[in-house]
Design a protein that fits this description.
With 351 residues, this protein is α/β, with parallel strands linked by helices. It contains 15 helices and 13 strands. A six-stranded parallel β-sheet has the order 2-5-1-6-7-8, sandwiched between helices. Strands 9-13-12-11-10 form a five-stranded mixed β-sheet, sandwiched between helices. It is globular.
Length: 351
C-alpha cells in the first residue's frame, strides 16, 4: 500500500479532502494514518498545527503531535532551523514510524507545495523520496486555477513522481458546470486523471470569525460569545453610505472592514447580515457601535493595521475543521463518497 501526498494552495481544502479520504478508507476496512511534514501555526508561538490536532483525534492516532507534524513554520523560518539535514532526518524518522504502523498514509501538504524547498522538504522532493503518489486539490475560481492544476501535474510528472490525479475542490456554484464539463475534459485530454469536483459548502469552507481574529491578532471589543459565526463574504468600506447600502444588503454573513472612525458605515452594516466588523487603524469606535453590535450579537474586532494591510492579511484566513465539529466531519466524508472517484484512488493506493 502506498502513501498519498495532497498538494494545493490555500483555500483548496487539502485537509478536508485528507479527512474525507481517511474516513472513507477506514470505512472500507483499511487502517489509514495521517502525516503532515510541515505545518503552520498562524504565528502563535508554541501552538500546534490545527490540522494535526484534528486528524489525531478523529482517526484515534496514539502518536504524539510532534510525530504527526514534525515542524511548524511561519514566513521567516530559515533562521529558526539552521541544520537542514537534521530537519530532513527528523521528517523521515517520523514518517517511517507512522508508515510502519498503518496500511497507508495520507500525507497533508502545507500551504504551498514549495514551502521549505531550501531544506529539501518541499512536497515534490518529499513525495519522490517517500515513494508517495501526488493528488492535487485545486480550488477553481477562474481559468488560471485550471492552469495551476495542469502545472502541478506536469511538474510532478517531470520530477518522476507518480500523479494519482486532481480533485477540484471548494468550487463556487457559478463555476461548477464549467469544472465538470470543460476543465475535466481538458485535464483528461492532457493525460491526467480527473478525480472529482466538490462544490463549496459553507459548513466546511467558510471561515469563522474566530479564525479571522486569530490571523489578525485583533482585540475583540464586542460579541466574544459569537466568534463561531461563519464568514461567507468580505466587504471593504471604501464608499459613501449612500453608495454602499445596496451592496451591504446583498452580501450575506459578511465581514465588513472599515476604519474605526467610520461609525456611520459600521452602524449601517450592523442593520444587515453581518458576521463581524473589523475596524482598522487602531481607532476605537463610537460607543454606539459597540452597544449596537452587542444588541445584534455581532463581534467587533479592532486591529492596528491599516485597511490595505488588513485586507492582505485576511487572504491568509482559511477554515479549519475542529475535532468537535461533527457536521463538518460528516460532510468531508460525504464529499468523497458523493463527488469523487474514490474507488480509483483506492486502486492506485493498492497498486
Amino acid at each position: 500500500m502506498k502513501s498519498l501526498y495532497l498538494i494545493g494552495a490555500p483555500g483548496s481544502g487539502k485537509t478536508a479532502v485528507a479527512l474525507g479520504l481517511a474516513l472513507k478508507l477506514r470505512k472500507e476496512g483499511l487502517n489509514p494514518g495521517y502525516f503532515k511534514p510541515v505545518g503552520t501555526t498562524a504565528g502563535v508561538l508554541g501552538k500546534h498545527d490545527d490540522d494535526g490536532v484534528l486528524m489525531q483525534k478523529v482517526l484515534g492516532m496514539d502518536e504524539d503531535l510532534e510525530t504527526i507534524v514534525p515542524f511548524t513554520v511561519a514566513n521567516f523560518y530559515i533562521s529558526n532551523f539552521k541544520q537542514p539535514d537534521k530537519c530532513r532526518e527528523r521528517v523521515l524518522e517520523c514518517y517511517n514510524r507512522i508508515a510502519a504502523k498503518y496500511e497507508c498514509v495520507i500525507i497533508d501538504g502545507t500551504s504551498f507545495p514549495w514551502v521549505m524547498a531550501s531544506f529539501g522538504l518541499d512536497a515534490m522532493t518529499l513525495a519522490q523520496e517517500l515513494g508517495a503518489g501526488i493528488l492535487c486539490t485545486i480550488q477553481v475560481e477562474n481559468d488560471f486555477d485550471f492552469d495551476e492544476a495542469l502545472f502541478f501535474n506536469r511538474h510532478a510528472e517531470s520530477r518522476g513522481v507518480e500523479v494519482v490525479g486532481t480533485i477540484f475542490n471548494n468550487i463556487p456554484r457559478q463555476m461548477l458546470a464549467k469544472t465538470e464539463g470543460v476543465y475535466s475534459r481538458l485535464l483528461t485530454g492532457f493525460g491526467y486523471e480527473f478525480l472529482g469536483a466538490i462544490p463549496s459548502r459553507r459548513e466546511i469552507y467558510s471561515p469563522t470569525v474566530a479564525e479571522y481574529q486569530e490571523t489578525l491578532q485583533g482585540e475583540v471589543l464586542a460579541g466574544e460569545d459569537h466568534l463561531d459565526l461563519l464568514v461567507e463574504d468580505v466587504l471593504v468600506g471604501a464608499m459613501t453610505i449612500e453608495s454602499a447600502l445596496d451592496t451591504l444588503r446583498r452580501a450575506l454573513n459578511k465581514a465588513v472592514i472599515i476604519g474605526g472612525d467610520r461609525s456611520d458605515y459600521a452602524l449601517a452594516a450592523l442593520e444587515t447580515s453581518t458576521s463581524v466588523l473589523i475596524l482598522t487603524g487602531g481607532l476605537y469606535p463610537n460607543i454606539r457601535v459597540i452597544a449596537r453590535a452587542e444588541e445584534k450579537g455581532v463581534p467587533v474586532i479592532l486591529v492596528h493595521y491599516d485597511t490595505v494591510t488588513t485586507v492582505e492579511r485576511i487572504s491568509e484566513v482559511t477554515r479549519r475543521i475542529k475535532p468537535k465539529d461533527s457536521k463538518a466531519i460528516a460532510m468531508a466524508l460525504e464529499n468523497i463518497e458523493q463527488y469523487c472517484r474514490w474507488e480509483l484512488i483506492m486502486q492506485r493506493l493498492k497498486a
